[in-house]
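ok trying this again, last paste got cut off
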Amino acid sequence: MAKKDAKALYKAGEKRWGTDEKTFIRVFCERSAAHLTAVDSAYHGMYGKCLKKAIKKKTSGHFQHALKTILQCSENPAKHFAKLLRKAMKGWGTNDSALIRVIVTRTEIDMQYIKAEYRKEYKKTLNDAVNSGTSGHYRTFLLALLSPNQ
């Protein structure tokens, strides 16, 4: 099934002039995360490049961003959310909406994996990053959600 979907995506994208977005929508919306990972692997094996590169080449804008996000989440959700958290706290100011959304929605699901990935990628604990990027009761609230440092 993964090879069949990889072939369908190739035909809908790189093999043709233009892009058959309906095929991308069908595959990316109707398949599980594990299946999309298998499709990416099959695509690479069959066509010598990863699906992410094909998406970059054949789509654009919000549609491209949505497809890449689904693919990233299927491959390694913890890495994806660690990257979002880093982006939310990087530079001057904090994107508080993004920071709150990720921490609140992932706390009881996979935050321990996100914290480990954050530390691995950025050589700093997520708790330390939140501590330095926030203040007051807001900081206390977020750190309580994150629980003790890992």
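PB: full thing came through this time. The mean pLDDT is 94.
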